[in-house]
Write a structure and sequence with these properties.
There is one protein chain. The chain is an alpha+beta fold. The protein folds into 3 domains: about 5-75 and about 325-345, no CATH class; about 80-105 and about 170-300, D-amino Acid Aminotransferase, Chain A, domain 1 (2-Layer Sandwich); about 105-165, no CATH class. The protein contains 10 helices and 12 strands. It has helices at about 5-35, 40-45, 65-70, 80-85, 90-100, 170-175, 265-275, 310, 320-330, 335-345; strands at about 110-115, 115-120, 130-135, 145, 160-165, 180-185, 195-205, 220-225, 230-235, 245, 285-290, 295-300. The protein has a 7-stranded antiparallel sheet. A hairpin with a 6-residue loop joins strand 8 (about 220-225) and strand 9. Helix 9 runs antiparallel to helix 10. The chain is globular. The model has no long low-confidence stretch (mean pLDDT about 90).
């Protein structure tokens, strides 16, 4: 048994963690919903805006992983060292080819540091193509720029420079102004080596979010049938007050629902193969673009690949493998798992 000082320190650490979690969620709640609290959802650990995003009209809250569970224990599954390392886009670009060789990545063109082009070992020289400039430690698509051939680099800040990719014709037809990406969640149950497929969704950009497809910036998200790769309807985010699912793209009118992602099995295999290449990770989200030449890995997210993109279409806890995965890591307890299982049977 630990001495009293150690127990007190652990108690204080846990108390501080819970306080920071509550403070962070309250800040997000106020930013996204003002003072219009959804008392029922907030009391169950959800942000109020989940009411207009999740299909609560079809499933009860027990079927969904709550924001408290997501932002608390789920966030902490991966080792801190890997979370810090892979958040750095340049480090990730260097590590991925070593850990997961033969995985196609965007062509690295160097760095932009306060408007100056910094050349890097192994990086190619720009060849007159469009360039994607990503903040080196940014997330959620914030600050990403698409630079036309010959356009000046951003004057301040540090950016990773990559050659812009052109989406497969199916993506071009749906929305040509942003590279739509597939987000695949993978994991390992505690104490097991086998890799689990935990869900997938497809993001598409809009005129508001371009040049990215990020949902928080105004993009839309469609669910993906994990076996066939066929898309469901797209959930709309910005500017809607109630859950809105559209069979077509809000800007182009192109059909989304029913479209099959080309090379879907290859996309699945890429995510699972990459997860196997990182045995220290328990949970990861892989952002993959489907191009004319096949799937390309855009980024890996190991800090918090939020399952909200999945839960906008289907509650995460309906999947028995997801429940087993979360239970094994203590993200949900036995009672919570039983309630989720009961909800899945309804």
């Amino acid at each position: 048994m630990r001495d009293p000082a150690a127990r007190l320190s652990a108690f204080r650490t846990g108390l501080e963690g819970r306080f920071n979690l509550a403070k962070g969620l309250l800040r997000t709640e106020l930013r996204t919903n003002g003072l219009r609290f959804d008392r029922e959802l907030v009391s169950r650990g959800f942000l109020s805006n989940r009411r207009r995003l999740y299909p609560f009209d079809r499933y009860g809250p027990d079927a969904f992983l709550s924001d408290v569970e997501i932002e608390g224990p789920l966030r902490m599954l991966n080792p801190r060292s890997w979370r810090q390392l892979l958040t750095d886009k340049l480090a990730a670009h260097a590590i991925l080819p070593v850990q997961a060789p033969n995985t196609p990545l965007p062509t690295l063109l160097g760095l932009s540091v306060d408007g100056a082009h910094v050349r890097l070992p192994g990086a190619q020289e720009p060849q007159g193509e469009a360039i994607i400039a990503k903040p080196l430690r940014g997330s959620g698509g914030r600050g990403v720029l698409r630079l036309a051939p010959g356009e000046a680099l951003p004057r301040s800040g540090t950016y990773l420079l990559e050659a812009a990719l052109e989406p497969h014709p199916y993506g071009q037809a749906i929305f040509p102004g942003a590279l739509g990406t597939v987000r695949i969640l993978t994991g390992r149950a505690a104490g097991e080596a086998d890799v689990l497929f935990l869900g997938a969704a497809h993001r598409f950009g809009t005129r508001i979010s371009a040049p990215t497809d990020n949902f928080k910036s105004g993009g839309v998200v469609a669910g993906i049938d994990p076996e066939t790769g066929r898309l469901g309807g797209a959930v709309l985010g910005l500017g809607v007050r109630q859950r809105t699912v559209s069979a077509t793209h809000p800007d182009t009118g192109a059909r989304i629902e029913g479209v099959a992602v080309p090379d879907w099995q290859a996309v699945r295999r890429m995510a699972l193969r990459c997860m196997r290449a990182f045995p220290d990770l328990s949970y990861a989200g892989w952002d993959i673009a489907v191009t004319q030449d096949g799937p390309v890995l855009i980024e890996v997210n190991v800090v918090l690949p939020n399952p909200n993109l999945i839960q906008m279409h289907t509650p995460w806890l309906l999947d028995p493998e997801v429940r087993r995965f979360l239970r094994s890591h203590g993200v949900i307890g036995a009672g919570r798992a039983r309630r989720a299982e009961a909800a899945a049977r309804l």
